[in-house]
Specification:
This protein is an alpha/beta fold. The protein is built from 10 helices and 4 strands, in the order H-H-H-H-H-E-H-E-H-E-H-E-H-H. Bound molecules: iron/sulfur cluster.
C-alpha cells in the first residue's frame, strides 16, 4: 500500500494547474465560461448585474440574501460626521456619551467626511455656514444619509420669520432623509430618528437604480416584488 504524497504547503501552482483544478471542482463549468461575456460582466456595475439577475426567481433569492447582508452591515456601522452647529449639537453630544451610548448601534463620530456616511445637521444653519456644509456633504462617499436635528435644521425654527442670516431648512442645501423636530430634541428623539434611518437603509437594495447626488430613486426592488410600483422607467426613476 503506497503512501499518498502530500503537496508541500509552500508549493506554488502553475496557472494551468489552477484552472484544471478549478474546472474539476466546478465540474467543467470554468471551461464553459465565455471569456467575452465574463469581461463584460466584470466591467459592469454590480447594481446593473443585480437588476438583470433579479429578473428570474432564483436571482430574486440571491439579491434578497445579498441585500440582507449588505444592509445589515451598513445600518449597524453608520459613521456620522462629527460637527455641530448650535445648541442642538449639545444634545447630539449627550446622545453619543455614556448614558445613551450610540456605540451600541455601531455608530461613532468620524472627523473626516471621506470616512463618514451620515451627516447629523444639529443646529442653526446660517447663510455663511451653508456653502461649507454643502462642501462637506459632497466630500462624503455614497451611500450617504442626512438627518436634520432640531427645528432650526428642519425649517429655520425660531429664526424662520425674522432672521435674514438663517437658512430656512437644511433641505434647501442638501437632501434630507430623516427630520427630527424639537427645540432642542431630546437624545431619545435622536436615537428614534437614527433607528428610522436604519429602517430606510434596510429597505434599500443593490437592484435599485443608483442614488444621484443624494436623490433616492422612486423605483425600489422590494416594491417591484410586491407589484405596487408604478411603471416608472429607469430614465425618470428619480425624485
Ligand atoms: S432648534 Fe432650538 S435648540 Fe436647536 S439649534 Fe435651534 S434654537 Fe437651538
Amino acid at each position: 500500500m503506497g503512501v499518498r504524497r502530500r503537496r508541500p504547503i509552500g508549493e506554488m501552482l502553475t496557472e494551468e494547474e489552477l484552472w484544471r483544478r478549478l474546472d474539476a471542482a466546478l465540474q467543467g463549468v470554468a471551461g464553459r465560461i465565455d471569456e467575452e461575456r465574463l469581461k463584460r460582466l466584470v466591467g459592469e456595475p454590480l447594481r446593473k448585474v443585480a437588476r438583470r439577475v433579479s429578473e428570474n426567481p432564483l436571482g430574486v433569492v440571491f439579491v434578497k440574501v445579498a441585500d440582507k447582508v449588505l444592509n445589515t452591515g451598513r445600518a449597524c456601522s453608520l459613521w456620522p460626521l462629527q460637527f455641530g452647529l448650535a445648541c442642538c449639537a449639545i444634545e447630539m453630544m449627550a446622545t453619543g456619551a455614556a448614558r445613551w451610548d450610540l456605540e451600541r448601534f455601531g455608530m461613532f463620530f468620524r472627523s473626516t467626511p471621506r470616512q463618514a456616511d451620515a451627516m447629523i445637521v444639529a443646529g442653526t444653519v446660517t447663510m455663511k455656514m451653508a456653502p461649507v456644509l454643502e462642501r462637506l456633504y459632497h466630500q462624503m462617499p455614497e451611500p450617504r444619509y442626512v438627518v436634520a436635528l432640531g427645528n432650526c435644521a428642519v425649517s429655520g425654527g425660531r429664526f424662520y420669520a425674522d432672521a435674514y442670516s438663517v437658512v430656512k431648512g437644511v433641505d434647501r442645501i442638501v437632501p434630507v432623509d430623516i427630520y427630527i423636530p424639537g427645540c432642542p430634541p431630546r437624545p431619545e428623539s435622536l436615537v428614534w430618528g437614527l433607528l428610522r434611518l436604519h429602517d430606510v437603509i434596510r429597505g434599500e437594495s443593490i437592484a435599485d437604480p443608483p442614488v444621484v447626488e443624494g436623490r433616492r430613486p422612486k423605483e425600489h426592488f422590494y416594491k417591484r416584488l410586491r407589484g405596487c410600483e408604478g411603471q416608472a422607467s429607469e430614465a425618470d426613476g428619480h425624485e
